[in-house]
Amino acid sequence: MDPHGKSISQASDRWSGLRNAALGVGAATLIVALTAPGAFTDLGAFAQQVRFQPHAPDFSRIAAAPAVVQVHLFSALTALAIGVVLMMRVKGTTLHKLLGWTWVLAMGSTAVSSLFIREINHGAFSFIHLLSGWTIIGLPGAVYAIKRGKVSAHRKAMTGMFVGGLLVAGVFTFLPGRLLWTVFLG
Asked: InterPro entries from the entry (predicted)?
């Protein structure tokens, strides 16, 4: 342990989580810039085109959503909250392991439930479902890595799933026409 109570591996790479989050947000911004170039050049016209009307959250739209969407949203928000706590706290403790297993269950539920949500793409899978497949395969691999003492592989896999599977995918939930867009902005 180092003097600040962090594990040695965590202390040596303390900015990796922030760096990965910045890369994820940058990638999401780049995707938006490439798919909707008018979003940045003429913000007013773009806001009118997508019916951007910020308002008080309309949670009745979540209540009216199909059960699989509600399960998906609940498990994703649970994984996000636990993930933030896990990223900020000391690794290897009993609390970390307990929260980690809860996070794995929440991420697994999020990934599996997303496979049943296909309304946006006329019943077909979309690009975002690739993140679900990556998570379904990556979760057992990351757990296996830590069980074998491969801390660095575990940290990289879990951080990648947190950034890609929650933060980047979470940005996509606010695209026009998606549920969270209508709840908060549309």
From this structure: DUF2306_membrane
